[in-house]
What does this fold into?
Amino acid sequence: MSDKNSDEFGPLAALIGEWTGDHGVDIAPEPDGQETNPYFETITYDPVSGLKNAESQSLEVIHYR
It folds into this structure.
């Protein structure tokens, strides 16, 4: 987590970190039925702070990658 206080991110603070799922199933139609493949994905939310908008607003955001 960043050196910023997590309270500055409001309800989004709970998302900060790396999330991994391993229960996905991709189902694709095939001429003879369907193809089923398991998959997983990882999502990372990074805190970003110190941004300015229109020189008057201070922004606290979370970057999704």
